[in-house]
Write a structure and sequence with these properties.
The chain is an alpha+beta fold and 240 residues long. It has one domain. The strands form two sheets. Strands 1, 3, 5, 8 and 9 form a five-stranded antiparallel β-sheet that branches. Strands 2-4-7-6 form a four-stranded mixed β-sheet. A hairpin with a 3-residue loop joins strand 8 and strand 9. Helix 1 crosses helix 8. The N terminus is likely disordered. One of its GO terms (biological process) is GPI anchor biosynthetic process. It holds the Pfam family Pga1. This is GPI transamidase component PIG-T.
């Protein structure tokens, strides 16, 4: 079992070399919100993820850390369809050619409403989304637009805040002042039995098949070798 665990970790880290993640469980506190509050959040121009549409390729703007923004530039996303008491993992993956430091934090709606800083940050990002072009994933958002208020209340929703800080140095003054947007993939990955991310199940199954197959073959090989030795000993005795 230890070998399987080590191999799994190696495979996991090998696939997502440039990855930052946050592990969380759905909160119950959103239940105190009224329908109008859900609509206020739902109508924000945020890109959305759910277990049904758990992958989003997009660009995130980064900036170098300053006294006012220690962890870089903030972006916000809406996570929907999260079941209570279930564990989830939100990951962000990016290429090594764009050195960036990411930090991920999740909040429920009540936490954002009760914090002036979080509320201002969310409103500021939403305004920038309205002024700019919205590169939303159309398939996923068609699904989200069809949801009713009752369905929003029934399932848990969270807000994902991502900090992106440029993590490089160059003699190019333009790049030092205006870092290029980072091409990323954001993944919402539910946990299987609250133990392991579902995306790892195929890898674990493959490793288990290799281990069981290797163990069975070693037993067969051992029996074959013992049988061969016995036959050789019998032939020697008969020749004597």
């Amino acid at each position: 079992m230890i070998i399987i665990y080590i191999l799994t970790l190696m495979a996991y880290k090998g696939v997502f070399a440039n990855t930052e993640k946050v592990i969380f469980e759905a909160s119950k506190s959103n239940g105190v919100l009224h329908g109008v509050d859900y609509h206020d959040f739902w109508n924000l121009p945020l890109e959305k993820l759910s277990p049904q549409f758990g992958k989003l390729k997009t660009k995130i703007f980064a900036e170098f850390p300053t006294l006012n923004s220690t962890y870089g530039r903030e972006s916000w996303f809406l996570l929907h369809g999260i079941s209570q008491r279930h564990r989830y993992e939100a990951r962000i993956c990016w290429t090594a050619t764009q050195p960036t430091s990411f930090q991920l934090v999740t909040y429920d709606f009540v936490e954002v409403l009760q914090s002036l800083d979080l509320k201002f940050s969310l409103e500021k990002y939403s305004m920038s989304r309205k002024l700019g072009s919205s590169g939303l994933n159309t398939i996923g958002n068609k699904y989200f637009q069809d949801l009713k208020v009752s369905e929003l209340n029934a399932s848990s929703s969270l807000l994902l805040q991502i900090f992106a800080a440029a993590d490089y140095y160059t003699t190019n003054a333009s790049l030092m002042q205006y870092p290029q947007p980072v091409q990323v993939e954001i993944i919402l990955d539910p946990y299987f039995l609250n133990i392991v991310p579902k995306s790892l199940i195929p890898t674990i199954a493959y490793i288990l098949i290799l281990v069981v197959g290797g163990w069975s073959f070693s037993i067969f090989l051992n029996h074959w070798a013992q049988s061969l030795i016995c036959n050789i000993n019998i032939e020697k005795k008969t020749n004597l």
